[in-house]
Amino acid sequence: MPPLPSTVDWRQKGAVTLVKDQGQYGCSSAFSAVATTEGIHALTTGKLITLSEQELVDCDTKGVDQGCEGGLIDDAFKFIIQNHGLDTEANYPYEGVDGTSNANEASQHVASIMGMRMSLPTLRRYCKRLWPINQFRLPLMPVALTFNFTRMVFSLAHVELSYGVTAVGYGVSDGGTEYWLVKNSWGTVWVEEGYLRLQRGVDSEEGLSGIAVQASYPIV
């Protein structure tokens, strides 16, 4: 296996859509699942398409996921698989409220996935998910993450996971600090135009605020 590069930024590879804004609602799992699906679709087809979070909010409500009240990224992936894909954001735009599933729009599948996988909570293994093994195996990125947002800066202890984001790369700051490049869904006014650099390489397999505990990604 070739050595890992020192930095990866999937925005530069055309695999990351613009930062979105979920507003005050608790549907971060939908935004994270959609962001990773957008990424893997772009990497496999060469077409970056902005997909619909509202479709998940409206239609993925039969299990743990409950629209604007929150849910699990893995269950969102399962819905996308069972639904045979998602429609575009343009056709099924985000409204920030729980609605009734639009059967016509939900039947429009412009991007689909075949399955999903969980990454083990080991930072080295997790890091490898951010980079292609060889030129014939497409990179499994971006990666959906769940972590404890309220303790994101200063906690290394065991945490309960509570918020979904998307890792779109990693790197090293000018000061020498290793970090994960994380895409959030609170608009471009948040932190670094909607992104956060969260320290990596800490002395914990969970990662800072549990970011490496429950990483998952779709497969096509």
TrEMBL record:
* SMART domains with a match to the protein in the record: Pept_C1
Enumerate the UniProt keywords alphabetically.
Disulfide bond, Hydrolase, Protease, Thiol protease
User: Does the record's keyword annotation contain Disulfide bond?
Assistant: yes
Pfam families attached to this UniProt entry: Peptidase_C1
Which GO molecular function entries does the Swiss-Prot or TrEMBL record give?
cysteine-type peptidase activity
Name all Peptidase C1A papain C-terminal domain ranges.
Answer: 4-219
The record's section on InterPro entries has:
Papain-like_cys_pep_sf (IPR038765), Peptidase_C1A (IPR013128), Peptidase_C1A_C (IPR000668), Peptidase_C1A_papain-like (IPR039417)
Q: Mind telling me which Gene3D superfamilies this protein's record contains?
A: Cysteine proteinases
Supply one GO BP term: proteolysis
Q: Domain of life here?
A: Eukaryota
What family is this?
Belongs to the peptidase C1 family.
- Name of the protein in question: Peptidase C1A papain C-terminal domain-containing protein
Can you name the source organism?
A: Sphenostylis stenocarpa
